[in-house]
């Protein structure tokens, strides 16, 4: 049996696949995404973590986005990649922490654009309470116009590297604002005529 197990929708923990064919299909999807076993599952007071390793950050993000469905709180799937630890929980895709080079915006060759906000309310709450240093946005490269999702600092500039042409882009998130009202978060931003924020 493979190291990845399918979860029941009514249970927070993993279950064994019903057939060997299902297990082999899941392992094939993991291999196509360049994933390999990480630490298995880790359980602590803050939740249950299913950890993988991946050599290709974009394939890892796509795998998390398309193949993992998290329906319970405090369940986290994390892929350790060369460009940070990407994860998915009940609120969606997230980047655990920005890398140190992402704060060096002066090194950027191009100005990229934000084309959409991916992070939901929980991501902004994490920034607000100090447990997160970024939120996820859709980005367009200022060099080749490739689009991808990346983590950026709130109300600041962040350096991000295009996965297509490797150009270093400066991303300005100062146009995005959020407000907390009790348990809710309201996000606001203006969209330019070219579709960027």
Summary keywords:
single chain; 197 residues; alpha+beta; 2 domains; 3-stranded mixed beta sheet; 16% helix; 38% strand; globular; disordered N terminus
Task: Kindly describe this structure.
This protein is an alpha+beta fold and 197 residues long. The protein folds into 2 domains: 1-96, no CATH class; 98-197, no CATH class. It contains 3 helices and 13 strands. It has helices at residues 20-32, 57-67, 121-128, and strands at 35-44, 47-54, 75-81, 84-89, 92-95, 110-111, 113-117, 135-140, 147-152, 157-161, 168-172, 177-181, 184-188. A 5-stranded mixed sheet has the order 1-2-3-4-5. A 3-stranded mixed sheet has the order 6-11-10, with no helix packed on it. A hairpin with a 2-residue loop joins β1 and β2 (47-54). The longest helix has 13 residues, at 20-32. The model is unreliable at 1-12 (pLDDT under 50).
Integer average pLDDT: 87
What general outline do the C-alpha atoms trace?
Answer: globular
Number of domains: 2
Number of helices, where a helix is a run of at least 4 consecutive DSSP H or I residues: 3
Q: What is the first-to-last residue Cα distance? A: 46 Å
Characterize the biggest β-sheet: 5 strands, mixed
Number of strands: 13
Beta-strand percentage? Answer: 35-45%
Brief sketch in words of this structure:
With 197 residues, the protein is α+β, with helices and mostly antiparallel strands. 16% of the residues lie in helices and 38% in strands.
